[in-house]
Design brief:
Elements lengths: L16 H10 L7 H5 L2 H6 L1 E4 L2 E4 L7 H13 L2 H10 L28 H19 L13 E5 L6 H10 L7 E5 L4 H8 L7 E6 L6 H18 L5 H4 E5 L2 H6 L7 E3 L16 H7 L1 H20 L6 H15 L4 E7 L6 H13 L17 E4 L10 H6 L4 E10 L5 H20 L15 E9 L2 H22 L10 H14 L10 H19 L5
Length: about 550
């Protein structure tokens, strides 16, 4: 079911009859009020969906059953089921790069694998897990014969946000192999990661799809120099450096062993890639069982998305509610509020997933979009966020919707603290939905914000896999309604090219004549600062 890059024109979102109906509903003289909607218990029962170990409650959304029906009509007019089948079936859903987006194939069971990729996925997964277990069990060792105790993962963006989230969320307090992530090109990051590392017992994973990503290559070069300075053993590099890349030849040319290079594929975007070889640090840190459980949880959500009817399809409904909030109610912000310390990195992962996927201004056929696309995504860890950003959420003037993520069962024995955590999560959601009144205007809050609440039975690999796959499908459904390609990211490339040019200019004493006036002044100022540092021994 291929879809050509030059697609026939499809209607703009605002031309769809369901969109026009939604616009009329949003403009009604009596706008929907959360307090009135929540008073209807029948409505509430219809706005909760439970999948394996995950409750999706959207009863706090400002959506009537009539609005919900119009949203589902909107999805039907965009032929969402057909597009979902294309996603899972290997269709060219990434039309601007003329390829499929097969991240779901990375977690499909063998009997459901696509013929075109099934064998390579299965073989790579086997190699990946064998390698991870050999490191965990001490069979694979460093050049001096000592087992690895530290893993330094070097990547950026999708090559590190997903794995770091998973290992942080599910890792033990004292893992047998400590995992550190380095992404920022700021030298302070790699310096801190290596400060207490032992070169004899440290394994490096370099994750870069192209094996030319600027930040990753600079940090990998710094790690390589650090290793050689302390060992004086160029022949030992291959035992301590592993690559995850689509450019295996470049990795081997850099000195890595072919058997220590794990493939990425062009049909997997970085932000969808934690299920692939990019998940190597997950397998090393957590083990084979946990990695397989993560895949199994995602498989379960894939089945739900494929099989559930629209009115009971959790990712589809979440996407449609995003459309309602952002395009019709003016909520240009989506706030992610995980009420579990282990999920503190979830806002950063979802920020990239949503905004890099759907921060677009062109439709699939190249025409300009006529509506807003991705919201501004941000958030914070509850209850820390309550003492930082909730003042704005309760009494500020910006419109937003929010996702609350709660975990029902704790992984510790501090029951009272966990009960307080859940109570705060519930209370903040209630306050944002209903607001409160006071005779003192300074003490009042309007409420009436659209909210989702996710409750995981407990936080384990299977349920985390389901949650992350949920958000992937939610993003896909947003994109199909807006008629944009959720799988390219051309917008990140231009600034990278400029940075390479400016890098050379900052190392020169000449005037940056090619640049605009403001940039020329800034380059000259930074050149002067660095000349002063070089000339002044006391600055060291």
């Amino acid at each position: 079911m291929a879809e050509d890059r030059k697609e026939p024109a499809s209607p703009a979102a605002s031309d769809l009859t369901a969109w026009k109906r939604l616009a009329r509903l949003a403009a009604q003289p009596q706008p929907l009020k959360s307090a009135d909607l929540l008073a209807d218990s029948t409505r509430g029962e219809a706005l909760r969906i439970r999948t394996d170990g995950l409750l999706f409650d959207f009863s706090r959304q400002k959506v009537s059953l009539e609005v919900l029906g119009a949203l589902l009509d909107l999805a039907e007019q965009r032929r969402w089921r057909r597009r979902a089948q294309a996603l899972f079936g290997g269709g060219m859903v990434n039309n601007t790069e003329r390829r499929a987006a097969l991240h779901t194939a990375l977690r499909s069971p063998p009997e459901q694998q696509l013929a075109a990729v099934g064998e390579q996925v299965a073989e790579t997964r086997r190699r990946l897990l064998d390698f991870a277990e050999s490191v965990r069990r001490g069979r694979r060792r460093g050049f001096s014969g000592r087992a690895f105790t530290q893993l330094v993962h070097i990547g950026i963006g999708g090559s590190h946000l997903g794995p770091e989230l998973v290992t942080t969320a599910l890792g033990a307090a004292n893992p047998p192999i400590k995992t550190t992530y380095v992404a920022n090109i700021d030298g302070s990051a790699i310096k801190a990661a290596l400060a207490e590392a032992n070169p004899e017992r440290t394994l490096f994973i370099v994750a870069s799809k192209s094996f030319s990503t600027l930040e990753t290559q600079a940090n990998a070069a710094a790690a390589r120099s650090w290793f050689l300075e302390r060992t004086n053993r160029p022949d030992a590099l291959a035992a301590h450096f592993v690559a995850v890349t689509a450019n295996a030849d470049a990795a081997v040319r850099s000195g890595l062993r072919k058997e220590n290079v794990f493939p990425m594929w062009d049909w997997v975007g970085g932000r969808f890639s934690l299920w692939s070889s990019v998940g190597l640090p997950i397998a090393v840190h957590l083990g084979t069982d946990a990695f397989n459980d993560l895949l199994a949880g995602a498989q379960g959500m894939d089945r739900h998305f494929q099989e559930a009817p629209g009115a009971a399809n959790a990712p589809l409904l979440a996407a449609l509610l995003d459309i309602w909030n952002g395009n019709f109610l003016g909520a240009g912000n989506l706030v992610i509020l995980p009420y579990d310390h282990r999920l503190r990195l979830l806002p950063a992962h979802l920020q990239q997933l949503i905004t890099e996927s759907n921060g677009k201004r062109r439709r699939r056929n190249g025409a300009k979009v006529d509506v807003h696309t991705a919201p501004i995504v941000w958030g914070g860890e509850g209850t820390l966020s309550q003492h930082a950003i909730h003042q704005l959420l309760h009494q500020g003037t910006r419109s937003f919707s929010a996702d609350f993520i709660l975990v029902g069962q704790a992984d510790h024995e501090l029951d009272e603290q966990h009960r307080w955590l859940l109570a705060n999560g519930l209370a903040q959601g209630q306050a944002m939905a209903l607001g409160w009144r006071s005779d003192d205007a300074h003490r009042s809050a309007p409420g009436n914000h659209g909210l989702n609440t996710f409750v995981l039975d407990r936080l384990d690999a299977k349920r985390l896999g389901a949650l992350l796959a949920f958000f992937e499908h939610r993003v896909f459904c947003q994109g199909l309604v807006w008629d944009i390609n959720s799988f390219d990211q051309w917008g990140v490339e231009f600034g990278k090219g400029l940075a390479r040019r400016l890098f050379n200019q900052l190392g020169d004493d000449g005037v940056a004549l090619e640049e605009d006036a403001s940039t020329r002044v800034l380059v000259a100022h930074l050149q002067a600062l660095n000349r002063k540092a070089d000339d002044d021994p006391s600055s060291e």
